[in-house]
Write a structure and sequence with these properties.
The chain is of the alpha/beta class and about 140 residues long. Helix content is about 40%, strand content about 15%. Strands 2-1-3-4-5 form a 5-stranded parallel β-sheet, sandwiched between helices. It is globular. The chain has 5 helices and 5 strands, in the order H-E-H-E-E-H-E-H-E-H. The longest helix has 16 residues.
């Protein structure tokens, strides 16, 4: 990765975390405390983000109503944080663009280069293979 690419990615991380908006749909978030999404969502809340659980069970998590899909959320979403296997992540990124999200964040280990390119071409900011719970404290 070139220095320019690293700087651009760091700028995108900062923009998403500080300027894109505070409503984060967390795809894959359930009430299972052992899953990474549960802890990451708690960190996002501590830093002032409104989390929206998105999981087929549509469970309430961290006091927030859950929804079965992004399309079911009845209000605007700023960022879609993706905790699904890489082979399903592209579909979620496409759905994020369809609902008018401003950015997509693929968690650590979630990699889909084609989805990254499509998402950027659709005008959304995109971060891949990073964790906001690691990045956000660095900005404080």
């Amino acid at each position: 990765m070139s220095v320019e690419t690293a700087t651009t990615e760091s700028d995108t991380v900062r923009k998403i975390l500080t300027a894109t908006g505070d409503t984060w749909a967390v795809v894959g978030l359930s009430s299972n405390r052992a899953r990474a999404a549960y802890g990451v969502a708690a960190v996002l809340q501590r830093f002032g983000k409104r989390i929206v659980p998105v999981h087929p069970k549509a469970e309430t998590v961290h006091g927030e109503q859950g929804y079965a899909s992004l399309a079911d959320i009845p209000f605007p979403v700023d960022v879609v944080d993706v905790f699904v296997n890489s082979e399903h992540a592209g579909q979620i990124a496409d759905e994020a663009a369809a609902i008018g999200a401003k950015a997509v964040w693929f968690q650590l280990g979630v990699i889909d280069e084609a989805a990254y390119d499509r998402t950027r071409e659709a005008g959304l900011d995109m971060v891949m293979d990073r964790c906001p719970a690691i990045e956000i404290p660095r900005l404080a």
